[in-house]
Task: inverse folding
């Protein structure tokens, strides 16, 4: 059974600080990794994808991947109240073939004004 | 470019009634998916379609059927609704594993 684990939170972070969200996965053969943001009552929105070990930066967001430790994280710098949402980690086996992806249950992030 | 659209947005059914949830995408994606999301359970895959004419069961297919009508459209049918099917249903399409979600259908079965 392939699994993706996340701390459910809530994770409370002061405005302007760095929010760190973590995810572990069980399938060592996984090749594609994603972070989705979901506001309350809305659908998930893809914010980051990462395929190789290391860091990938996009604006205030940085995704970090460590395949040896089966660990992926999302850092949000200069956190804003608008970042308050649930963040879903998702993992897939084959990077260039559309297939089922496994979602974690999400971490609720609350940015304190 | 509307992305992924779903109808209806809200629906209330009585136990035993049937209905079809509609989904369409205009991004020319081959793969499409149906999920349900319940509090504390995360997103669970009901069915997916890797291409036109093919469908496969996901994690929770019981009580549902799907039809991949063409490349754009993927419908989900509840033949005899049960209260356990009360949930929010999301359709998604994907390209290179990056999934794009519709706005969802909030279904209540009484």
Result:
């Amino acid at each position: 059974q392939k699994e993706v684990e996340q701390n459910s939170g809530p994770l409370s972070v002061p405005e302007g600080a760095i929010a760190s969200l973590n995810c572990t996965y069980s399938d060592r053969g996984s090749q594609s990794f994603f972070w989705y943001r979901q506001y309350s009552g809305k659908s998930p929105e893809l914010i980051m994808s990462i395929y190789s070990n290391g860091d990938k930066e996009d604006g205030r967001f940085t995704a970090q991947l460590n395949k040896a430790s089966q660990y992926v994280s999302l850092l949000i710098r200069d956190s804003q109240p608008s970042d308050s949402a649930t963040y879903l980690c998702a993992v897939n086996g084959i990077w260039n073939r559309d297939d089922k992806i496994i979602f974690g249950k999400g971490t609720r992030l609350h940015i304190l004004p | 470019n509307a992305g992924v659209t779903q109808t209806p947005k809200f629906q209330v059914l009585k136990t035993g009634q049937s209905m079809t949830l509609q989904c369409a995408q205009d991004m020319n994606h081959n793969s499409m998916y149906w999920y349900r999301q319940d509090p504390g359970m995360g997103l669970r895959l009901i069915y997916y379609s890797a291409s036109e004419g093919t469908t496969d069961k996901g994690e929770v297919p019981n009580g549902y059927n799907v039809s991949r009508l063409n490349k754009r459209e993927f419908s989900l049918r509840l033949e005899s609704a049960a209260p356990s099917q009360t949930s929010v249903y999301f359709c998604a399409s994907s390209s290179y594993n990056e999934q794009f979600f519709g706005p969802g259908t909030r279904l209540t079965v009484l």
Summary: Chain A touches chain B at residues 32, 34, 42-46, 49, 88, 90, 92, 94-101, 103-106 (CB under 8 Å). The radius of gyration of chain A is 13 Å. The mean pLDDT of chain A is 92. DSSP finds no helices and eleven strands in chain A.
